[in-house]
Specification:
2 helices; mainly alpha; single chain; about 70 residues
């Protein structure tokens, strides 16, 4: 029997919130560059790190019974 608590279409597991947070940070990075808050060098440093983190989360991330 599945013991994970479902809320809507996703369970309460933390990895269901990780990818949306990374996508938001990715978009925020480019928005701050467009607004002039971050310079191009900083953005060139940040966005590959976010992609690597997302890939690691997807590749070796935690799994729950709902996935």
């Amino acid at each position: 029997m599945d013991t994970t608590e479902m809320k809507g279409s996703a369970c309460e597991c933390g990895h269901h919130r990780t990818m949306p947070v990374i996508v938001i940070l990715f978009g925020l990075t480019f928005l701050l560059k467009a607004l002039g808050t971050l310079d191009a060098g900083t953005v060139d440093y940040i966005w590959p790190i976010l992609v690597i983190i997302a890939g690691c989360m997807k590749w070796g991330g935690m799994k729950c019974k709902c996935c």
